[in-house]
Design goal:
The chain is of the alpha+beta class. The protein contains nine helices and 15 strands.
Protein backbone atom coordinates (compact mmCIF):
# COMPACT_ATOMS: atom_id res chain seq x y z
CA UNK A 1 0.00 0.00 0.00
CA UNK A 2 2.15 2.80 -1.30
CA UNK A 3 0.97 6.40 -0.96
CA UNK A 4 1.10 9.11 -3.61
CA UNK A 5 0.43 12.80 -4.10
CA UNK A 6 0.25 15.25 -6.99
CA UNK A 7 -0.18 18.99 -7.43
CA UNK A 8 -0.70 21.43 -10.30
CA UNK A 9 -1.21 25.03 -9.28
CA UNK A 10 0.12 28.52 -8.64
CA UNK A 11 2.75 27.67 -6.02
CA UNK A 12 5.98 25.69 -5.98
CA UNK A 13 4.99 22.05 -6.01
CA UNK A 14 7.84 20.45 -4.06
CA UNK A 15 7.05 21.78 -0.56
CA UNK A 16 3.35 21.00 -1.02
CA UNK A 17 4.09 17.48 -2.21
CA UNK A 18 6.51 16.92 0.67
CA UNK A 19 3.87 17.81 3.25
CA UNK A 20 1.21 15.71 1.53
CA UNK A 21 3.41 12.63 1.34
CA UNK A 22 4.63 13.12 4.91
CA UNK A 23 1.00 13.24 6.05
CA UNK A 24 0.33 9.86 4.43
CA UNK A 25 3.54 7.84 4.68
CA UNK A 26 2.76 6.19 8.03
CA UNK A 27 -0.45 4.74 6.57
CA UNK A 28 1.50 2.28 4.46
CA UNK A 29 4.72 3.73 3.04
CA UNK A 30 7.75 5.38 4.58
CA UNK A 31 10.32 2.88 3.31
CA UNK A 32 11.23 4.95 0.23
CA UNK A 33 10.29 8.49 -0.74
CA UNK A 34 10.53 10.52 -3.93
CA UNK A 35 9.34 13.79 -5.50
CA UNK A 36 9.39 14.90 -9.15
CA UNK A 37 8.51 18.22 -10.78
CA UNK A 38 8.58 19.81 -14.23
CA UNK A 39 10.14 23.20 -14.94
CA UNK A 40 11.47 24.81 -18.13
CA UNK A 41 10.77 21.69 -20.14
CA UNK A 42 12.79 19.38 -17.88
CA UNK A 43 11.99 16.79 -15.24
CA UNK A 44 13.56 17.40 -11.85
CA UNK A 45 13.46 14.71 -9.18
CA UNK A 46 14.95 13.37 -5.98
CA UNK A 47 14.37 10.05 -4.25
CA UNK A 48 15.87 7.96 -1.46
CA UNK A 49 15.42 4.85 0.54
CA UNK A 50 13.86 6.10 3.76
CA UNK A 51 11.09 8.37 4.99
CA UNK A 52 10.12 11.87 3.88
CA UNK A 53 12.40 13.33 6.56
CA UNK A 54 15.29 11.33 5.13
CA UNK A 55 14.48 12.69 1.65
CA UNK A 56 14.68 16.25 2.99
CA UNK A 57 17.91 15.46 4.83
CA UNK A 58 19.76 13.77 1.96
CA UNK A 59 18.54 15.61 -1.16
CA UNK A 60 17.42 18.95 -2.59
CA UNK A 61 13.84 17.70 -2.93
CA UNK A 62 12.30 20.69 -1.15
CA UNK A 63 13.93 23.14 -3.57
CA UNK A 64 12.98 21.39 -6.82
CA UNK A 65 11.60 24.03 -9.23
CA UNK A 66 8.20 24.05 -10.86
CA UNK A 67 4.52 24.27 -9.98
CA UNK A 68 3.53 20.80 -11.23
CA UNK A 69 4.69 17.57 -9.64
CA UNK A 70 4.14 14.10 -8.18
CA UNK A 71 5.37 12.30 -5.06
CA UNK A 72 5.52 8.73 -3.80
CA UNK A 73 6.11 6.83 -0.56
CA UNK A 74 6.40 3.09 -0.81
CA UNK A 75 6.27 -0.16 1.13
CA UNK A 76 9.20 -2.52 1.97
CA UNK A 77 11.64 -3.64 -0.69
CA UNK A 78 15.31 -3.88 -1.61
CA UNK A 79 17.98 -1.83 0.17
CA UNK A 80 18.61 0.54 -2.74
CA UNK A 81 17.70 4.11 -3.68
CA UNK A 82 17.06 2.78 -7.18
CA UNK A 83 13.91 1.02 -5.98
CA UNK A 84 12.41 4.27 -4.75
CA UNK A 85 9.75 5.88 -6.93
CA UNK A 86 9.10 7.84 -9.15
CA UNK A 87 10.97 6.15 -12.01
CA UNK A 88 12.50 8.20 -14.84
CA UNK A 89 12.58 6.85 -18.40
CA UNK A 90 15.96 6.47 -20.08
CA UNK A 91 15.30 9.43 -22.38
CA UNK A 92 14.11 11.57 -19.43
CA UNK A 93 10.77 12.20 -21.16
CA UNK A 94 8.45 10.48 -18.65
CA UNK A 95 8.57 10.07 -14.90
CA UNK A 96 6.12 7.61 -13.37
CA UNK A 97 5.00 6.14 -10.07
CA UNK A 98 2.35 3.63 -9.11
CA UNK A 99 0.57 2.08 -6.16
CA UNK A 100 -0.90 -1.38 -6.42
CA UNK A 101 -0.70 -5.12 -6.79
CA UNK A 102 -1.11 -7.63 -9.60
CA UNK A 103 -4.28 -8.93 -7.93
CA UNK A 104 -6.50 -10.46 -10.60
CA UNK A 105 -3.69 -10.05 -13.12
CA UNK A 106 -1.04 -12.42 -11.80
CA UNK A 107 0.02 -13.32 -15.34
CA UNK A 108 1.01 -9.74 -16.19
CA UNK A 109 4.70 -9.73 -17.02
CA UNK A 110 6.82 -7.00 -18.63
CA UNK A 111 9.32 -9.54 -19.97
CA UNK A 112 8.49 -8.92 -23.64
CA UNK A 113 8.96 -5.19 -23.32
CA UNK A 114 12.11 -5.58 -21.21
CA UNK A 115 13.84 -7.76 -23.81
CA UNK A 116 12.90 -5.36 -26.64
CA UNK A 117 14.08 -2.33 -24.67
CA UNK A 118 17.28 -4.06 -23.61
CA UNK A 119 18.05 -4.87 -27.26
CA UNK A 120 17.62 -1.16 -28.01
CA UNK A 121 20.31 -0.34 -25.46
CA UNK A 122 18.06 0.87 -22.65
CA UNK A 123 19.27 0.32 -19.12
CA UNK A 124 17.29 0.02 -15.92
CA UNK A 125 18.84 1.16 -12.61
CA UNK A 126 16.35 -0.96 -10.65
CA UNK A 127 17.58 -4.13 -12.37
CA UNK A 128 18.72 -6.92 -10.04
CA UNK A 129 20.52 -9.93 -11.65
CA UNK A 130 18.46 -12.48 -9.73
CA UNK A 131 14.89 -13.22 -8.68
CA UNK A 132 13.13 -10.88 -6.24
CA UNK A 133 10.34 -12.30 -4.11
CA UNK A 134 6.96 -10.86 -5.06
CA UNK A 135 8.08 -9.72 -8.52
CA UNK A 136 8.04 -11.52 -11.85
CA UNK A 137 11.37 -12.86 -13.06
CA UNK A 138 12.44 -11.50 -16.44
CA UNK A 139 13.51 -13.78 -19.32
CA UNK A 140 17.21 -13.27 -18.48
CA UNK A 141 16.66 -14.42 -14.89
CA UNK A 142 16.82 -10.97 -13.31
CA UNK A 143 14.24 -8.50 -12.07
CA UNK A 144 13.52 -4.83 -12.77
CA UNK A 145 10.73 -2.86 -11.11
CA UNK A 146 7.57 -2.75 -13.20
CA UNK A 147 7.29 0.98 -12.55
CA UNK A 148 10.58 1.62 -14.29
CA UNK A 149 9.56 -0.54 -17.24
CA UNK A 150 6.24 1.34 -17.39
CA UNK A 151 8.06 4.70 -17.46
CA UNK A 152 10.05 3.60 -20.49
CA UNK A 153 7.10 2.04 -22.28
CA UNK A 154 5.08 5.22 -21.72
CA UNK A 155 7.94 7.29 -23.13
CA UNK A 156 8.02 5.11 -26.26
CA UNK A 157 4.29 5.60 -26.75
CA UNK A 158 4.49 9.37 -26.25
CA UNK A 159 7.41 9.55 -28.70
CA UNK A 160 5.15 7.75 -31.18
CA UNK A 161 2.57 10.53 -30.98
CA UNK A 162 0.25 9.56 -28.13
CA UNK A 163 -0.80 11.91 -25.37
CA UNK A 164 0.30 10.82 -21.92
CA UNK A 165 -3.31 9.92 -21.05
CA UNK A 166 -3.54 7.72 -24.15
CA UNK A 167 -0.19 6.12 -23.33
CA UNK A 168 -1.19 5.35 -19.74
CA UNK A 169 -4.40 3.77 -21.00
CA UNK A 170 -2.51 1.54 -23.44
CA UNK A 171 0.02 0.62 -20.76
CA UNK A 172 -2.68 -0.62 -18.36
CA UNK A 173 -4.48 -2.49 -21.12
CA UNK A 174 -1.32 -4.28 -22.23
CA UNK A 175 -0.01 -4.72 -18.68
CA UNK A 176 -3.11 -4.77 -16.45
CA UNK A 177 -2.77 -4.51 -12.68
CA UNK A 178 -4.85 -3.39 -9.69
CA UNK A 179 -3.29 0.06 -9.41
CA UNK A 180 -3.34 3.81 -9.31
CA UNK A 181 -0.63 5.56 -11.39
CA UNK A 182 0.79 9.09 -11.73
CA UNK A 183 3.05 10.49 -14.44
CA UNK A 184 4.63 13.66 -15.80
CA UNK A 185 5.94 14.44 -19.28
CA UNK A 186 7.82 17.54 -20.55
CA UNK A 187 5.68 17.50 -23.69
CA UNK A 188 2.73 18.29 -21.38
CA UNK A 189 4.50 20.57 -18.92
CA UNK A 190 1.44 22.09 -17.27
CA UNK A 191 -0.33 18.90 -16.21
CA UNK A 192 -0.25 15.71 -14.19
CA UNK A 193 -1.76 12.58 -15.72
CA UNK A 194 -3.20 9.92 -13.43
CA UNK A 195 -4.95 6.59 -13.78
CA UNK A 196 -7.03 4.72 -11.23
CA UNK A 197 -8.12 1.13 -11.64
CA UNK A 198 -9.17 0.36 -8.06
CA UNK A 199 -6.47 1.52 -5.65
CA UNK A 200 -7.29 4.58 -3.55
CA UNK A 201 -6.90 8.01 -5.18
CA UNK A 202 -8.67 11.26 -4.29
CA UNK A 203 -8.74 14.65 -5.97
CA UNK A 204 -9.33 18.08 -4.54
CA UNK A 205 -9.03 21.75 -5.39
CA UNK A 206 -8.77 25.21 -3.90
CA UNK A 207 -8.17 28.68 -5.32
CA UNK A 208 -4.51 27.82 -5.88
CA UNK A 209 -4.81 24.62 -7.90
CA UNK A 210 -5.69 20.93 -8.03
CA UNK A 211 -4.41 18.07 -5.88
CA UNK A 212 -4.32 14.26 -5.84
CA UNK A 213 -3.65 12.02 -2.84
CA UNK A 214 -3.96 8.36 -1.96
CA UNK A 215 -5.70 9.20 1.31
CA UNK A 216 -8.22 12.00 1.71
CA UNK A 217 -6.52 12.79 5.02
CA UNK A 218 -3.74 14.50 3.05
CA UNK A 219 -6.28 16.75 1.35
CA UNK A 220 -8.05 17.47 4.64
CA UNK A 221 -4.73 18.51 6.18
CA UNK A 222 -4.49 21.23 3.53
CA UNK A 223 -7.92 22.54 4.44
CA UNK A 224 -9.50 21.64 1.12
CA UNK A 225 -13.30 21.64 1.25
CA UNK A 226 -13.84 20.34 -2.28
CA UNK A 227 -12.63 16.74 -2.49
CA UNK A 228 -13.85 13.50 -4.06
CA UNK A 229 -12.73 10.00 -4.91
CA UNK A 230 -11.32 9.57 -8.41
CA UNK A 231 -13.74 7.25 -10.27
CA UNK A 232 -12.79 3.62 -10.66
CA UNK A 233 -11.33 2.62 -14.02
CA UNK A 234 -10.59 6.15 -15.17
CA UNK A 235 -7.77 8.30 -16.52
CA UNK A 236 -7.47 11.98 -15.67
CA UNK A 237 -5.45 15.00 -16.71
CA UNK A 238 -5.03 17.77 -14.13
CA UNK A 239 -3.67 21.29 -14.57
CA UNK A 240 -3.84 24.39 -12.38
CA UNK A 241 -7.10 25.36 -14.10
CA UNK A 242 -9.06 22.14 -14.55
CA UNK A 243 -9.34 18.40 -14.17
CA UNK A 244 -10.71 16.12 -16.91
CA UNK A 245 -11.70 12.44 -16.65
CA UNK A 246 -11.98 9.66 -19.22
CA UNK A 247 -13.29 6.14 -18.71
CA UNK A 248 -10.96 3.14 -18.80
CA UNK A 249 -13.35 0.69 -20.38
CA UNK A 250 -10.94 -2.27 -20.40
CA UNK A 251 -11.72 -2.93 -16.73
CA UNK A 252 -15.53 -2.66 -16.95
CA UNK A 253 -16.10 -6.46 -16.82
CA UNK A 254 -14.38 -6.74 -13.42
CA UNK A 255 -16.06 -3.78 -11.72
CA UNK A 256 -18.64 -4.80 -9.13
CA UNK A 257 -21.94 -3.01 -9.71
CA UNK A 258 -22.41 -1.99 -6.08
CA UNK A 259 -19.57 -0.93 -3.78
CA UNK A 260 -20.40 -2.49 -0.36
CA UNK A 261 -19.93 0.57 1.83
CA UNK A 262 -22.43 -0.50 4.49
CA UNK A 263 -20.89 -3.97 4.82
CA UNK A 264 -17.39 -2.52 5.09
CA UNK A 265 -18.35 0.00 7.77
CA UNK A 266 -20.26 -2.62 9.74
CA UNK A 267 -17.32 -5.05 9.62
CA UNK A 268 -14.78 -2.43 10.68
CA UNK A 269 -17.08 -1.27 13.47
CA UNK A 270 -17.16 -4.88 14.73
CA UNK A 271 -13.37 -5.14 14.63
CA UNK A 272 -12.77 -1.95 16.60
CA UNK A 273 -15.59 -2.66 19.05
CA UNK A 274 -13.87 -5.93 20.00
CA UNK A 275 -10.79 -3.99 21.10
CA UNK A 276 -7.17 -3.93 20.03
CA UNK A 277 -5.13 -1.72 17.76
CA UNK A 278 -4.53 -2.12 14.05
CA UNK A 279 -2.61 -0.95 10.99
CA UNK A 280 -4.28 -0.14 7.67
CA UNK A 281 -3.12 -3.50 6.31
CA UNK A 282 -4.59 -5.38 9.28
CA UNK A 283 -7.99 -3.83 8.61
CA UNK A 284 -8.01 -4.11 4.81
CA UNK A 285 -7.16 -7.82 5.01
CA UNK A 286 -10.39 -8.38 6.96
CA UNK A 287 -12.48 -6.98 4.11
CA UNK A 288 -11.37 -9.10 1.17
CA UNK A 289 -14.23 -11.57 1.66
CA UNK A 290 -16.78 -8.83 0.95
CA UNK A 291 -15.96 -8.73 -2.77
CA UNK A 292 -17.25 -11.28 -5.29
CA UNK A 293 -14.64 -13.58 -6.77
CA UNK A 294 -13.25 -12.19 -10.00
CA UNK A 295 -14.17 -8.57 -9.24
CA UNK A 296 -11.82 -5.71 -8.39
CA UNK A 297 -11.34 -5.34 -4.65
CA UNK A 298 -11.52 -1.85 -3.12
CA UNK A 299 -10.86 -2.86 0.49
CA UNK A 300 -7.82 -0.58 0.86
CA UNK A 301 -9.63 2.49 -0.45
CA UNK A 302 -12.61 1.85 1.79
CA UNK A 303 -10.40 1.28 4.82
CA UNK A 304 -8.80 4.67 4.19
CA UNK A 305 -12.23 6.31 3.98
CA UNK A 306 -13.49 4.64 7.14
CA UNK A 307 -10.40 5.77 9.05
CA UNK A 308 -10.68 9.28 7.62
CA UNK A 309 -14.28 9.67 8.72
CA UNK A 310 -13.78 8.19 12.16
CA UNK A 311 -10.60 10.12 12.92
CA UNK A 312 -12.48 13.33 12.16
CA UNK A 313 -15.55 12.43 14.22
CA UNK A 314 -13.47 11.33 17.19
CA UNK A 315 -14.47 7.66 17.28
CA UNK A 316 -10.90 6.51 16.55
CA UNK A 317 -7.46 7.63 17.64
CA UNK A 318 -4.16 7.11 15.83
CA UNK A 319 -0.58 7.27 16.99
CA UNK A 320 2.82 6.90 15.39
CA UNK A 321 5.01 3.84 15.81
CA UNK A 322 8.00 2.55 13.86
CA UNK A 323 8.78 -0.64 12.00
CA UNK A 324 12.04 -1.92 10.53
CA UNK A 325 12.72 -0.01 7.33
CA UNK A 326 14.10 -1.32 4.05
CA UNK A 327 17.41 0.50 4.42
CA UNK A 328 20.03 -0.53 6.95
CA UNK A 329 19.37 1.27 10.23
CA UNK A 330 16.41 3.19 8.79
CA UNK A 331 13.09 2.84 10.65
CA UNK A 332 9.83 3.41 8.78
CA UNK A 333 6.91 5.32 10.35
CA UNK A 334 3.70 3.38 10.93
CA UNK A 335 0.27 4.51 12.19
CA UNK A 336 -1.79 2.30 14.46
CA UNK A 337 -5.47 2.88 15.16
CA UNK A 338 -7.84 1.98 17.99
CA UNK A 339 -11.26 3.01 19.24
CA UNK A 340 -11.56 6.10 21.43
CA UNK A 341 -13.75 6.61 24.46
CA UNK A 342 -16.30 8.12 22.06
CA UNK A 343 -16.61 4.98 19.91
Amino acid sequence: MCNMAAYAGKHRAAPILFEMIREQEALGGGHYTGIATICDGKIHYAKVIGSADKLAERTNALTLPGTVGIAHSRTPGIDSDDWAQPFLSCDRQVIFCGNGILGLYKDTNYGDYYMKAKAQGKTFPSYIPHEVKGYHTLPDGGCAHGGELSANYLSDLVAGGMSLAQAMTVNRERYPEEVADLALCPKEPDSVTALRVNMSLHWGRDADGYYLATSGLALDARGLNWTALVPRASVLTMSAQKIEFQSLDYYSPVLDTVTPWHKVYARLDEIFAAGGDFTVADLADQLDVLWPKGKLNESIMMTYEYLRENIHNGRLVRWMTEEKGSGAGLPAPKYRFKKSDNF
